[in-house]
Amino acid sequence: MDNPVKATPLEMAAIDVDGLTVAELGLVNKINLRGDFDSHACNSALTELLGMECQLEANTYVSNSASTLFWLGPNERLLYTDSDPQSIAERWRANPGTAAVDVSDYSTVLRLSGAKTRAVIASGSPFDVHPQQFGVGQCTQTRFGNASVLLSNHADTPVFQMQVRWSFARYAFDYIKRVADYV
Amino acid sequence: MFIINCPYCGDRDQTEFSCHGEAHIPRPTETKKMTDEEWGDYVFFRTNPKGYHRERWLHDHGCRRWFNALRHTVTDEFVASYKVEDPRPPIPDNGGQS
Amino acid sequence: MTQTHRLSEGGLVDRSKPLTFSFDGITYTGYRGDTLASALLANGVRLLGRSFKYHRPRGLIAAGSEEPNALMQLETGPYTEPNTRATCIELYDGLVAKSQNRWPSLGFDVGAANSLVARFLPAGFYYKTFMWPASMWMTYEKYIRKAAGLGVSPTEDDPDVYHGTYAHCDVLVIGAGPAGLAAATAAASGGARVMVLDENNTPGGALLGTSNNAASLEFIQRSVQSLERNENVQLLTRTTATGYYDYNYITAIEKVTDHMGPGKGGTAPRQRFWKIRAKQVVVAAGSIERPLVFADNDRPGVMLANAVGTYINRYGVLPGNDVVVFTNNDSAYQVAFDASESGGVVTVVDTRSSVQSSLKALLEEKNIKLFEGHAITSVQGAKGVESVRVMKLSADGDSVQGQAWEIDCSVVASSGGWTPSCHMVSQSGGKLKYIESIAAFVPDESRLKKTSPNISAGSCNGSFVTATCIQQGTQAGVDAATRCGLHGTAASSESFTVNEVPLGTISPLWLVPTTHPVGEGRSKHFHDFQNDVTAADIQLAAREGFVSVEHLKRYTTTGMATDQGKTSNLNALAIMANIQGVSIPEVGTTTFRPPYTPLTLGAVGGQESRELFIQERHTPMHEWHVDNGAEFEDVGDWKRSWYYPKAGEDMHSAVQRETLAVRESVGMLDASTLGKIDIQGKDAIKLIEMAYTNNWQKLAIGSCRYGLMLNEHGMIFDDGVTTRLGENHYHMTTTTGGAARVMGWLEEWLQTEWPEWEVYCTSVTEQWAVMAINGPKARELLQSITDIDVSKDAFPFMTMREGKVAGVPARVYRISFTGELAYEINVPARYGKHLIEALAAAGKKFDLCPYGTEAMHVLRAEKGFIIVGQDTDGTVTPHDMDMDWIVSKTKEEYLGNRSQVRIDTQRTARPQLIGLLTEDPTVVLPEGAHIVSEVSDAPPMPTIGHVTSSYMSPNAGRSIALALLQDGINRKGDVVTLRLMNGEVHRATVSDTVFVDAEGVRVRG
Questions:
Q1: Residue C773: which of C856, C830, C656 has the closest Cα?
Q2: Which of B61, C349, C422, C579 could pair covalently with B16 via S-S, beta carbons 3.0-4.6 A apart?
Q3: Which residues make beta-bridge pairs with B80?
Q4: Cβ pair A126:B64 closer than 8 A
């Protein structure tokens, strides 16, 4: 019991086929942050907390070496962080009218890259991921098959991330694996 | 299959959304003073217009925000979608023909 | 002798690639580039099927997807597919096809006797004859289906895989004929994202069926090359647009590997289903030639004129040496020329009395005989055309007169004009308009549906000259791009010679007369070949009052089945218009419905089949359950452990053992699937007070409380335990199936009704892995692996403690769904596997028993705990559940409050939850069994309630049940009667709902 086993839903499963590489990112600290992000005070408090500019357009993300902050909704942000999620959550909650929840294990993150990436996503999602519509720095919540996912574009090569709930992870992974042969 | 404009996320496929019926029906405040008939009106009865309809939508697979939309129930044309706190957009005066 | 009808040269088939195939057990050869239809025709096979109703011999009518007759049972075993059109099957080596709807053989068909009793099989026959008495329909149906069926479905699993995908574009072009290619080229030139679909295996459309096509082929090649070079363009062949839905959502099916033969596609999917969203659509779907409706026009060998032309020009097959072209317009003259050029002996019968002199001169030059103002009045030859009789038409076209000429022939190429393919535009909601000069409907650009903008170009828009089609296509492409905010350019206009004769002056003759009135005598005038519907049937429908076009369709079945009336609809409308003496637009058209051509359900499902059909949700401990032999139960989308059978155990004995173990030692259950919602904010308490029926104001930090949620109808819709974590911080749990519903419910109220409240709800269902340990030894077990003081006083019932369990951070809730001493251990999901393994190891000395949902159900029923959705069904109030104790009498308001005092919810005879103890304690009542007030031999019997939960309880030592019974709370002690579906009758005593530990001592132990 001194060395408890930590698991991810996919046990770091991977796909490596012609034109598509998929990897599970492993444990990622995630915090759901709430507040009135239409207000200047709220944004500057977050900017100060994270040490990067946190004013976000809808369906975009911003990142630095330690953090990535995603827009989820007008009063909702999601933070990936290398820091201790509990302490960040506590510091954020010190601001009036806010909330923070550690959701590190609520979901897992898949990294998709390779030439087939967009075609694989298009197989399950009605969201248009064409480079003209969905460039680097953009993110969106949408549907992949029957799973709700958070998609983000990280490089033109392309590199996408797909965040999916723990209990849907196997389904989404199997879905990707199946269509990888078809596109 | 519609394209629906989420006031927060923009145009999205209908399958990201769910529809929740007529909008702008506030919950009565002093419910205990209401007659069965008045309460029944609130709980059970909705308009069912052939024409423009203000209705509630939820961007389920997206930003999870509720919003309202003005849709024509025959042509399925979405005239406008608007946030819960926004003023109601006017109903077009063409009688709904498109 | 093979390929008797193959011309010595010409066509687009590859003569260096012979292919072998079989039809009805006989082996033939064809060439790569053939369709099954052209290959059969090349081999002189004319008889391809029997008709649907009269079992009349039928052959090919068309060369494209409009073919109504030549339906094939393609391939065998798991790969077999019924009702495939021979004209759409690309020939591959080893192809096996069979004709359909014939017994015992195509040549000799017993059902053909139907033809002799045809006067007893009029339209509406089934409705009139077999629907009475209604109970006999079941008996008639199986014989009728057998006699009048189409192909047969495979009985094995489909070995193929399918792919579905979404796609987006600025401009979607439907059809890659001259208009479509021009439109795509123009739209793409402005930078638009363009998709082009064509059902053929190669682009080109009608050009592929024209003669001297070097210039045409060059145009096609040039266009395709420029489109393929453009990375913004996707050109899909073998792809049919099947449906056109709101907001320019178009579905299409791509036949990816069908042309290779079954099982030959490697890892590629057999078919792909495209779900396309286009900003603009250019419809360039072409047109379909209409057959003339004349006596016995269904004999094998009577074909559409352009089909004859296409078989000659594209496939190098002359369907027969003696060809009669029967037409009411100029376009079919090209077919006469092509057939003559190919060595055929050709006669033209034109219904018009004056044919233009330039055409006459050409006929003379080629030695083709012309009958002007004449019509075919009969067709001889039972299994194939042998000759036709031709007579002069009266001036009004209603009758024939004079000398009858008999012309020996094997092929009749008929043309009644062209019907633009408006299917897509009609499906999109666009309206059509009738154009006299072409005697057909085209899309009315002023009455399209605003939400589905499209432009029609080419022959689907009524233009039947290639140059005009290209011109229209180019303009449509430019316009579509412009509407997308881009600038398409019209390339220098394409100009090349196509061997085609324009439509000229069409003289509609919707129903060709013969020597006796239509419907009398033995000859039939078919307008719908697939459904075996004749002009006489339309007359009958009119006599019986089915004059509306929608009634006409359903009464006669015109336009139904796999071809959806592609060749028949307009003829039917026009015949009805003539009968009624009104114009064709006054009769109107039926709305075209998807799919345009039949498609496989496999393709529609795509990859979302088998284990991807519905998502399977797994908990972090799933693998442990699998490793420990669990059987699983579907709960919502979740796979939950149902029970853990040991060697030799059946379900019953495993569940009884698990149930006993929980009350005797300790059991563990994976409870991770329960919904969990984190609620924060200064107004959190206001939300909780509104959502639940009981009082929450005084709940201390670290304490838990059970709550019931009602909808505004006052009916129970969820329950669960909520814990106060901090000053303004709560952790709510919901039922497994209700998790998303409750989250949505709270958000709905917060966002739409109380946006000013400061409350944030976050789903944390999967954040936590949860193990529930229940039983008298639960405390000892827990204490052995935690640093939390779990003594009775330090950790009372209905409280929560934080600490380490098995070395990892945990929240432990002392709550119970079994009535036993119990703890629910929550750890971050990453430690779920670790936790269950640590519990299993530590539990050995406490006789720990893993149990599943079935034992959980028995345990909770022993205590009378309800399961929302099993003991409730959306029509029961807390009072109906005998749960008045949880409804606050003091608080001002909560959701569903006012409905508790409606007249209906207060009436006395409502079904209420009670316990049932059967007279025979070994009888376990089936759930759903009805409590009746009187027993009779057969239903109906007045029912006064039903069983909601029923189990054999090892702890009560007998069977127990929960039931909803009218006025049940007042009837405890009464004996009631249950009558089962199998006729058994049981008596049971109405009891309290708690069967074990009624005082509730154990849970507080």
A1: C856
A2: B61
A3: B70
A4: no
Beta-carbon separation of C616 and A1 below 8 A: no
For residue C991, the domain's CATH number is 2.40.30.110
Q: How far is C450 from chain B (nearest CA, A)?
A: 6
A43-102: per-residue pLDDT in tens? Answer: 999 999 999 999 999 999 999 999 999 999 999 999 999 999 999 999 999 999 999 999
- Check B40 against C902: CB less than 8 A apart: yes
Judged on CB neighbours under 10 Å (0-12, 13-18, 19+), C204 is buried
pLDDT of residue C490: 75
Mean pLDDT of all residues in A138-147: 98
- Return the residue matching tokens 């209705």: B55
C169 occurs within a structural domain: yes
| Angle, vertex CA C693, rays to CA C691 and CA C698, nearest 5 | 90
Spans in chain C with pLDDT lower than 70: 1, 102-104, 108-149, 212, 491-494
Domains and CATH numbers, chain B: 3-27+40-83 (3.30.2270.10)
Question: Which CATH number do you get for residue C221?
Answer: 3.50.50.60
Q: Which of A59, A76, A142 shows the shortest C-beta gap to B16?
A: A142
pLDDT digits (tens, 9 = 90+) for C292-346: 999 999 999 999 999 999 999 999 999 999 999 999 999 999 999 999 999 999 9
Q: What are phi and psi of C170, to 5 degrees?
A: -75, -50
Give C897-902's long-range contacts (Cβ < 8 A, gap of 24+). C897/B31, C897/B32, C897/C693, C897/C710, C897/C714, C898/B31, C898/B32, C898/B34, C898/B39, C898/C714, C899/B39, C899/B43, C899/C710, C899/C712, C899/C713, C899/C714, C899/C715, C900/C714, C902/B36, C902/B39, C902/B40, C902/C714
Quote the pLDDT of residue C560: 85
Please answer yes or no on whether A7 and C277 come within 8 Å at the CB atom. Answer: no
β-pair type (C760-763, C768-774): unpaired
**Of the partner residues B61, B64, B65, the one whose CB lies closest to the CB of residue A143:** B61
Cβ of B43 within 8 Å of Cβ of C712? The answer is: yes
Residue C955 included in any domain: yes
Average pLDDT over chain A, rounded to an integer: 96
> Which residues on chain B are in Cβ contact (under 8 Å) with C905?
none
Rounded to the nearest angstrom, the minimum Cα separation between B42 and chain C is 9
Return the pLDDT at C116.
Answer: 58
pLDDT at C488: 77
CA distance A118 to chain C (A): 11
In a domain, C944, yes or no: yes
Please answer yes or no on whether A178 and C612 come within 8 Å at the CB atom. Answer: yes
Which tokens sit at C408? 């020996």
Q: What are the percentages of helix, strand and coil residues in chain B, rounded to 5? A: 15, 35, 50
In angstroms, the separation between the Cα of residue C448 and the nearest Cα of chain B is: 8
Task: Give the per-residue pLDDT at C114.
Answer: 64
pLDDT recorded at residue C562: 84
How many structural domains does chain C have? 2
Q: What is the pLDDT of residue C521?
A: 84
Rg for chain C, CA atoms, rounded: 38
The DSSP annotation for C25-36 comes to: TEEEEEEET-BH
Amino acid at C172: L
Neighbours of C984 (CB within 10 A): 12
C281 part of a folded domain: yes
The answer to whether the CB of C248 falls within 8 A of the CB of C279 is yes
Contacts of A76 in chain B (CB under 8 A): 63-64
From chain B, the residues in CB contact with C247 under 8 A are 1-3, 76
Pairing of the two strands C162-174 and C271-283? parallel
Domains of chain A and CATH, by start: 14-26+106-180 (3.30.1360.120), 29-102 (3.30.70.1520)
Q: What percent of chain C has pLDDT over 70?
A: 95
Residues of the domain holding C938: 906-1005
